[in-house]
Every structure is written in structure tokens, then in C-alpha cells.
């Protein structure tokens, strides 16, 4: 997409919101309705109720409709969404996820062998946002024995027949277009705050979003209490269905990339996994799980700043409310992780089996990355050769911290204080021995 086209998107964004706000002030009517029926009207009866329609016997997660209904119901109650947020960031993205579910399920029906593709001893990075997870994932991806999912593979699901070996993957152009738009609307997001390109390793949350298990909603919904409670009420069996579909999407990505026989370790990352570690470990019993930990006094304002860059696509920003919301959401993740680890560590302390969890301090990763990577490999009994060490060093030399601009942030900007943060996250900092 040209820069001219990207600026057209920017003009649409501001014009739509301005016109919508004016109409609302005059008539009390909001442009863009968020509800289940509005979304489903975009699908034909055949697409909804046909033999392989959305509401047929789904070969993946059969509970998706409950999650879909709950998610839209909660978005519908968000009074702070502006027109662009309602029409594009909620409705259009929800429609896209439904269509991608159909693409994925149809591919699985046509190619049942996809379910047999091995996912060997995956590495999950589950640290809090802004705790070094991206650096760790990208270093691990330098290992030829590891395989991270790339941005273009995650952001769009297409029929595998459309990707021909030896030819350009059509998803790469789609991803480049999206990055171009994001770079116009949010220049800082794609540079200093979270630099990414078409083929860089990226977090795997989109695979859960296609089951309408949504970190996006938690981060950007103004009152996520109802949705957060609904997530907390999910049973292990509920989430096993979600994670089976998650795994099938990984297998489809490998199949589409002509890597069905690959024995490389997958490197996956997202903090959202901390909410469902019991289900994750049942489906991936060989998993290695790395928890990056960082002082919340630094982590929280960094998360606020990062979230602010995207949040304006959904609604107008009140920084103090954003700060309070991020304390709640990050606290929710941190509490879930501490609770699971306390129980898990107590049970496993008397066992001499293989190590599943490792905690990595943010400061160690940033200040001594090579030594930290050596400890990671030693912990999980993985070989780290001289050649691989050189690859890590080359990556770090080519990608120094702040290469794309320094990310500036502060607690004060979001109406927060160190004392408030230290009290709220005292259990997290104590259990994981978080250093300043």
C-alpha cells in the first residue's frame, strides 16, 4: 500500500469519528452498532447454517459461539467506543475472525493429516507485557533448532493451497499493508515501542482470538469486569477445546509452510497463557515455560504507554483511567501466574523430573543477554554451541536497545505512584524475587 493510501485511512479515521460525534451530540444516535446480529448479517445462510457453516458441527472448538456472544455483549456495553472503534476495530475484526475460523476448519477437513504434525517440546514465553518477552523470543528464534511463528503467518489465515512452495506467500503483502497503515496511524507503535516487520517473530494471541478468547478486549474495553469474570469462570475442559484449536492452527501454519515433518521446537509467547496454564500443560506436556519478570514500577508505565498507542483506535483516551485499567489487568495476569506457580512449585518441589518453568529477570536479560541465554539453555538441558552463541551476539549487535527510538514513559503521566504499584504487586515481586 502506498503512503497516500495509508493517509486516506488516517483521514477516514478522523473524519468518521468527527462526523459520528457531531451526529451523537445532535440526535443521540451512535454510528456503528456492535452486536451479534449486526456481525452475523454479513454472512449468508449457507455460510452460517450450511453443511460446513459457522453453526454446523465444528471440528474445532465447539464452544466458540458462547465466547463470541459474550465478547460482543461486553463490547456493546462499552459507552466509550468511538465510531471507528465500533465499526472497524470491533465489528470488522470480529467478522474477519469468523471468516478465518471457516478457512481453518475447512482446511482441517480437507487435510486431516494436519492433526498429526508434531509440535515438539514447545517453548512458551509467558512473562508480563514489557518484561523483555520480545527480546527473548527473537534471540531464541536465532537458533536453527527453534521455530517462531512470524507476524505474517499469525495475522492472517488463508487456504494452504494459496501458498505455493518457492513462490511469495500472499500473506506477506497483506501484512506489509497492515504495517504500513499502522505506521501512518501510530508511528511510535511500530518503531520505538514495538518494532516489528512482516517476518519477525510475534506473539501468538491471534490464535486464541479466533476462539474469541480475547486479550484485546481486556486491554481496550473500558469496563472489562464482566468479561474478566467470564474468563475466570472457564473450566479446564472449556480451555482444552480452545487450546486444541490453537494447536491445530499452529499445525496448519507448519503445513502451509511445507514443514509438516519439521522437528524444530516452536517458540511461542503471550502473557495471556498465564490464565490457562493447566489446560496448556495438559495439551503440551513437554512444554518449557519461561516467565520474564520485571519491576512493576517500570513495567506498568511502559504497558500504559504501549497500550495508549493502540487504544485511541477504539476510543478517546483518559490517561488516568487508562493507568487504573492497566494496573487492574496486569494485576489480574500477575495474580493468576503467582497462584498457579505457588501450587505447581509446591507439588513439584519433591519431584526430580525435568524442569518445566524458569524465571528470567529483565535486568539480567538486558544487561547480560548472552550469559542469560546460557542459563536458559542449561536449565532446559538444550545444547548451546559456539556457533549459536555467535548468532546471539550478531543479533544483539545488529539490534541494540533503542535502535528504533527510545521509549519514554512515567507513572505520573497516568496518575500512578510507586507506592500504589509496589503495594498492588507486592505478592508478584516477592514470589519471583523481582529486582529493581
Provide a quick synopsis of the model:
With 436 residues, the chain is mostly helical. The protein has 21 helices and five strands. Strands 2-3-1-4-5 form a five-stranded parallel sheet.
Task: Tell me about this structure.
The protein has 436 residues and is mainly alpha-helical. Helices cover 56% and strands 5% of the residues. The protein has 21 helices and five strands. It has helices at 3-27, 36-40, 45-49, 64-76, 83-110, 133-140, 151-155, 170-185, 189-193, 205-209, 215-220, 225-232, 236-256, 277-283, 296-311, 319-348, 362-367, 369-379, 386-398, 418-424, 426-431; strands at residues 123-125, 146-148, 265-269, 288-293, 357-361. A five-stranded parallel sheet has the order 2-3-1-4-5. Helix 13 (236-256) crosses helix 14 (277-283) and helix 15 (296-311) packs across helix 16. It is globular, with a radius of gyration of 22 Å. The protein starts with a helix and ends in a 5-residue tail after the last helix. The mean pLDDT is 89.
Map the helices and strands.
Elements lengths: L2 H25 L8 H5 L4 H5 L14 H13 L6 H28 L12 E3 L7 H8 L5 E3 L2 H5 L14 H16 L3 H5 L11 H5 L5 H6 L4 H8 L3 H21 L8 E5 L7 H7 L4 E6 L2 H16 L7 H30 L8 E5 H6 L1 H11 L6 H13 L19 H7 L1 H6 L5
Parallel strand pairs: 1-3, 1-4, 2-3, 4-5
Amino acid at each position: 500500500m502506498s503512503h497516500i493510501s495509508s493517509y486516506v485511512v488516517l483521514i477516514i479515521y478522523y473524519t468518521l469519528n468527527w462526523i459520528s460525534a457531531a451526529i451523537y451530540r445532535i440526535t443521540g444516535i451512535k454510528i456503528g452498532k456492535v452486536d451479534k446480529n449486526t456481525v452475523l448479517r454479513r454472512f449468508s445462510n449457507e455460510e452460517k447454517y450450511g453443511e460446513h457453516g459457522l453453526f454446523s458441527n465444528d471440528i474445532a472448538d465447539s464452544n466458540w459461539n458462547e465466547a463470541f456472544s459474550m465478547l460482543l455483549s461486553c463490547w456493546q456495553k462499552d459507552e466509550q467506543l468511538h465510531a471507528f472503534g465500533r465499526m472497524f476495530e470491533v465489528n470488522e475484526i470480529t467478522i474477519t475472525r469468523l471468516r478465518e475460523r471457516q478457512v481453518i476448519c475447512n482446511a482441517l477437513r480437507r487435510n486431516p493429516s494436519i492433526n498429526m504434525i508434531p509440535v515438539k517440546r514447545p517453548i512458551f514465553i509467558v512473562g508480563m507485557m514489557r518484561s523483555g518477552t520480545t527480546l527473548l523470543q527473537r534471540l531464541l528464534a536465532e537458533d536453527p533448532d527453534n521455530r517462531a511463528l512470524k507476524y505474517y503467518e499469525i495475522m492472517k489465515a488463508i487456504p494452504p493451497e494459496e501458498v505455493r512452495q518457492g513462490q511469495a506467500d500472499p500473506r506477506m503483502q497483506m501484512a506489509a499493508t497492515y504495517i504500513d497503515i499502522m505506521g501512518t496511524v501510530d508511528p511510535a507503535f511500530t518503531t520505538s515501542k514495538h518494532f516489528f516487520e512482516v517476518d519477525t517473530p510475534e506473539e501468538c494471541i491471534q490464535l486464541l482470538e479466533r476462539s474469541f478468547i480475547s486479550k484485546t478486549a481486556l486491554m481496550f474495553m473500558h469496563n472489562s469486569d464482566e468479561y474478566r469474570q467470564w474468563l475466570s469462570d472457564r473450566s479446564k475442559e472449556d480451555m482444552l477445546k480452545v487450546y486444541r484449536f490453537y494447536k491445530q492452527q499452529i499445525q496448519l501454519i507448519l503445513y502451509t509452510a511445507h514443514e509438516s515433518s519439521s522437528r524444530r521446537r516452536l517458540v511461542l509467547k503471550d502473557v495471556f497463557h498465564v490464565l490457562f496454564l493447566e489446560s496448556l500443560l495438559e495439551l503440551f506436556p513437554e512444554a518449557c515455560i519461561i516467565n520474564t519478570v520485571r519491576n512493576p514500577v517500570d513495567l506498568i508505565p511502559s504497558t500504559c504507554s504501549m497500550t495508549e498507542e493502540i487504544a485511541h483506535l477504539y476510543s478517546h483516551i483518559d490517561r488516568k483511567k487508562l493507568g487504573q485499567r492497566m494496573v487492574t489487568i496486569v494485576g489480574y495476569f500477575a495474580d493468576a501466574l503467582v497462584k498457579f506457580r505457588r501450587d505447581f512449585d509446591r507439588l513439584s518441589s519433591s519431584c526430580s523430573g525435568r524442569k518445566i518453568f524458569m524465571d528470567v529477570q529483565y535486568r539480567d536479560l538486558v544487561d547480560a543477554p548472552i550469559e542469560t541465554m546460557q542459563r536458559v539453555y542449561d536449565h532446559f538441558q538444550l545444547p548451546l554451541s559456539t556457533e549459536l552463541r555467535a548468532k546471539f551476539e550478531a543479533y544483539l549487535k545488529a539490534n541494540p536497545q533503542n535502535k528504533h527510538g527510545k521509549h519514554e514513559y512515567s507513572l505520573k503521566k497516568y496518575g500512578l505512584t510507586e507506592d500504589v504499584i509496589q503495594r498492588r504487586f507486592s505478592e508478584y515481586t516477592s514470589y519471583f524475587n523481582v529486582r529493581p
